[in-house]
Write a structure and sequence with these properties.
- The protein is mostly beta strands.
- The protein has 2 domains: 104 residues; 52 residues, no CATH class.
- It contains 2 helices and 15 strands.
- Strands 1-3-6-10-11 form a 5-stranded mixed beta sheet.
């Protein structure tokens, strides 16, 4: 049976009986694709959506406890705009947790932070997922996870970022830091991983 080109909804065949069944199914699928919302409770692992799961909703909400960045893998057949809200909880040592939205053998992917906001995306159904308003969804403001210098995680993924609330700016004195953004680096194996400031790559102090 032939289908529509983007959502792959079944066409009504000229010779079939009970054409109203196919028509009503198509109406319901369109209704869900335009207005439906589905919440996916994630385990701490990547999640692959079926064609039916992806087609039958407009808004995808993801919940669950995650310790690392995880992938949401879309079906490589459905072409559609959709909305994503990452409402997962960071239970690991990373400064922040995001979901990477991808399809097929990824070319363009999108990273959605766990800020519970809603992001409008579009899947080509082949290899790319685009943000509707911009090529890079990370250009919207993102709030970094806040820690004091003493409470920064002992380990994190290379390049993880955070905000040290009492870290020293260049003009501040010991004990009077008002905060700086920092990143995690393991570039000096002899001292292990440390949190460094962007200004001169030195270890953050307070």
């Amino acid at each position: 049976m032939s289908t529509t080109p983007n959502l792959l909804i079944s066409h009504i065949a000229a010779s079939q009986n009970q054409k109203e069944v196919t028509a009503n199914t198509a109406f319901d699928t369109l209704d869900e694709a335009l207005c439906g919302s589905t919440t996916f409770a994630m385990t701490d692992a990547d999640l692959t959506l079926t064609a039916l799961q992806f087609t039958d909703c407009w808004v995808l909400v993801f919940t669950g406890n995650l310790t690392h960045i995880r992938n949401i893998i879309l079906p490589a057949s459905i072409k559609k705009p959709f909305v994503v809200s990452n409402q997962t909880v960071n239970t690991g040592s990373l400064a922040s947790i995001s979901l990477t939205i991808k399809v097929g053998t990824p070319g363009q992917t999108q990273s959605v932070p766990n800020d519970s906001k809603y992001y409008l995306l579009w899947s080509t159904g082949v290899n790319d997922v685009h943000a509707i308003r911009d090529v890079n969804i990370q250009q919207v403001p993102i709030t970094l996870k806040h820690y004091t210098v003493a409470n920064l995680p002992a380990t994190a993924d290379e390049g993880a970022v955070a905000y040290a609330t009492d870290g020293l700016k260049s003009f501040e004195t010991t004990g009077n830091g008002t905060g700086v953004p920092v990143y995690f680096s393991t570039s000096v194996p002899s001292i292990g991983g440390v949190w460094r400031i962007f200004r001169d790559d030195s270890q953050v102090l307070n």
